[in-house]
């Protein structure tokens, strides 16, 4: 598996390449942040607060800005203590997101991770729509060595989830992982379907700790913010999985999402194998954001 | 959404400017500042935006404000024209060889972009045109990729050629073309695995296919929600493999789709089709002018301008 290389020098050069904190310096930072998909608004906010701090602390050296900037973004992206509680509780994890972002793969990776912690895991194959979605998840269940319920083409996804909950109870599963079909957030009927799945979980499995993860492709631009907003109207989102971080996209939109919606990134996907899922590391993320090497 | 108010913002900027005559540098700068923000919000690449805005500025300063327009609208008119021009002024079709000669089309792109779905969609379109397409299952990595293509092929009534997942994609591609020529197919569409543009080994795989199979069209499939990285992806695919056209998928969402502009600007390759849904009939012609107004996010202003 490939993991993202952190080229420290690229990061450093942004700050050491300038001798003064001037408009050019801020412009360079603006460019880096926007090129990282953070978005115009969040970038402005970040730079405004940086400028304030620079003034307050009478900072003269661009290199000293580095710490300030990193710390403020890192602080903001902090995951929180209870982020991974579901791993240790009897829980149900609902995985949702738009088409092709990496939901099914993430379910497979999470299953592998939990299985290696000796957890009893059951997968619910609630994508009954996309061609061969069931077969795909079955392959992941095999790889992870866990049970799977459903996967029948054309079945009602809510009914699959219902069956999976009964199976989880009967087999005393620790974690139930629900894969769902990709759906664009602007499709009313599909979002209604999601609410229905959510209601089934609430009603049938109230004793389970709820975790609802929105999967976002790191390559996605500003639309990811809209996605996160719309999905949180259909279900209570507890975290984000940022996939395809092994590419050259920075996933900066996650910063905007965190600042606007308060939803933390909990995992990142860094490849296509079962081991390519990592807990989110704010330090590494911010470092990579400023690694401009690949842009040249 | 934040950008819905762009036209309002522009109206505001020019509220007090009712005079006619030439566009001054000030007029243009004020308007272009808002345009720049709109383009960035739409995910057009930062560098592409910079260059674009600069060239519009050069053209706009000193030009006459048309009757019925205010200076802001005049700038937008020029912006829109330049964008449509950049986008490719007309629709383009996939180039097909005539008669029984076999056209090999290779699909390529990042993971999850929509290659397999688009493969089946294009096959349906070509079948309607009287072609006889064959789909080749060259993704031997993704779980159930072959089953996915087969299910889609069945829905379209199009044959799928597969050798399972234990052969090299280049060999599958070669065998598929052979199968096609023996069985009277005149189009072969290669569905390849998703790959990162920086994954050397996987990129080499596509190069190898191109070396050993007579691929006449390489189509890059791009998710329309792609952000700033679209230029890296598109330019690397173009440099390493060479592409002939682009399909933009998932435009049934509410993304502004600025990636379209970025990709055009860095590769110069035409956008052939747009994906408008998950159903296999959801593939539509690409219209540069419609895309331009979607990216600008100000259909109302444009209608006004067109009437002027
Ligand atoms: N490079 C890379 N590829 C990934 C990652 N996660 C998923 N993928 C790939 O992305 C593609 C789509 O993944 P899926 O898991 O099928 O995505 P999905 O969200 O379930 O897709 P739909 O169910 O069709 O909406 C596959 O080719 C995966 O192998 C990642 O972290 N890095
Ligand atoms: N809404 C919408 N979904 C689409 C469109 N095109 C493809 N999809 C969906 O996007 C997801 C990924 O599509 P695939 O065709 O599997 O993508 P791929 O590029 O072959 O993926 P990999 O082989 O894993 O790299 C699926 O859920 C498709 O149904 C489109 O135009 N609109
Ligand atoms: Mg899936
Ligand atoms: Mg595919």
SSE map:
The complex is a heterodimer of chains A (296) and B (308).
Chain A: H1 8-16, H2 23-35, H3 40-56, H4 62-76, E1 91-96, H5 103-116, E2 121-126, H6 133-144, E3 147-150, H7 157-170, E4 175-180, H8 188-204, E5 209-217, H9 223-234, E6 239-243, H10 253-261, E7 265-269, E8 277-279, H11 282-289
Parallel strand pairs in A: 1-4, 1-5, 2-3, 2-4, 5-6, 6-7
Antiparallel strand pairs in A: 7-8
Helix pairs in contact in A: 2-3, 3-4, 4-11, 5-6, 7-8, 9-10
Chain B: H1 6-13, H2 25-41, H3 46-60, H4 71-87, E1 103-108, H5 115-128, E2 133-138, H6 145-156, E3 159-161, H7 169-183, E4 187-192, H8 200-212, E5 215-223, H9 230-240, E6 245-249, H10 259-267, E7 271-275, E8 283-285, H11 288-296, H12 299-307
Parallel strand pairs in B: 1-4, 1-5, 2-3, 2-4, 5-6, 6-7
Antiparallel strand pairs in B: 7-8
Helix pairs in contact in B: 1-2, 2-3, 2-4, 3-4, 4-11, 4-12, 5-6, 7-8, 9-10
Bound molecules: guanosine-5'-triphosphate (GTP) (2 copies) and magnesium ion (MG) (2 copies).
| Major sheet description of chain B | 8 strands, mixed
SSE series of chain A: HHHHEHEHEHEHEHEHEEH
- Strand order within the widest sheet of chain B? 3-2-4-1-5-6-7-8
Oligomer: heterodimer
Strand content of chain A: 5-15%
Number of helices of chain B: 12
**Helix-strand string of chain B:** HHHHEHEHEHEHEHEHEEHH
What is the gist of this entry?
The complex is a heterodimer of chains A (296) and B (308). Chain A has helices at 8-16, 23-35, 40-56, 62-76, 103-116, 133-144, 157-170, 188-204, 223-234, 253-261, 282-289, and strands spanning 91-96, 121-126, 147-150, 175-180, 209-217, 239-243, 265-269, 277-279. Chain A is an alpha/beta fold.
Overview of this protein structure:
- The complex is a heterodimer of chains A (296) and B (308).
- Chain A is of the alpha/beta class and 296 residues long.
- Helices cover 47% and strands 15% of the residues of chain A.
- Chain A contains eleven helices and eight strands.
- Chain A has helices spanning 8-16, 23-35, 40-56, 62-76, 103-116, 133-144, 157-170, 188-204, 223-234, 253-261, 282-289; strands spanning 91-96, 121-126, 147-150, 175-180, 209-217, 239-243, 265-269, 277-279.
- Chain A is elongated and about 65 Å long.
- Helix content of chain B is 48%, strand content 14%.
- In chain B, helix 4 (71-87) crosses helix 12 (299-307).
- The model of chain B has no long low-confidence stretch (mean pLDDT 91).
- The chains are: A alpha/beta (296), B alpha/beta (308).
- Chains A and B meet through helix 2, helix 6 and helix 9 of A and helix 2, helix 6 and helix 9 of B.
